[in-house]
What does this fold into?
Amino acid sequence: MKFFTFGSKDIGIDLGTANILVTLKGKGIVLKEPSVVAIDRKTGSILATGIEAKEMLGRTPESIKAVRPLKDGVIADFTATQLMLKNLVEKVKKRYSIGRPRVVVGVPSGITEVEERAVEESVLQAGAREVYLIEEPMAAAIGAALDVAEPSGSIIVDIGGGTTEVAVISLGGIVVSNSLRVAGDELDEDIVNYIKREMNLAIGETTAEQIKIQIGCAMPLMSEMYMDIRGRDLTDGLPKNIKITSVHVEEAMRESIKKILDIIKITLEKIPPELASDIVEKGIVLAGGGALIKNLDKLISIETGMPVYIAEEPLDCVVRGTGKTLEDLERLKTVLINARKRK
It folds into this structure.
């Protein structure tokens, strides 16, 4: 079929709660930006997307609203999502002088049909020739180099910004999946609240995220790490510097990490017996930014009794998966949400 021969004009998009990534055949990842958009309230036009818009969060005058259109892995603001997608596709088309690309978009697995149509329409409006949607855990599995078309089971845990998605995959389909609205953003909030409660210090989410990345851990580390942070003292309102340790951060994130462990266990309990032995043998693959939390792989392994592996470049798994799907569209057609429905 000529229809599925791959042109150099195809784009893969990871529509994440925290970041949007875009991949282009032959170029790899060409765009990585925060999922934030700044809109002029009066005209409804876009003023900025990505990094520029993120810098405006919480700092805009009345006439401008800076929003994160995706919350907890679902589309919270339709209009802003459509504008952002359109803006990104146009940006990539212009920068790489692409005509009308085919686009594969990685979407959260809990997405509704209305949201699916909103994503499809906004990408088509941005000048795409065809739009295919793929569930994020499936895209992450393909991006993590799991052979999803095989008749044997694999399990992927994708811990993103808004959601943790756990999926058991076999024969190009998701056999069992669970989605939990506890992931990177929630862990940042846990750190903000812990420091407020225990240290009487107010910090922002950006600082919390830096703490999580640098010294966050799911189990005590061999040697404790620490970090100097700056915030506002809640007693006198003045800026103050304090030292925080990895032990504090582990304690702050404990409850949310437990919820992530629980959802993994619940998913494992639902695995059909035929696939259980494959999965015990192959182990669990971790993707998404949350996979980088120190000792999380060890903790999951202890709690489940299974080997746990971190995917290569876990932050890029979903977008790499969309790119690989485009390259092998004929074989992987079954993994696409809307291709299944078009039959």
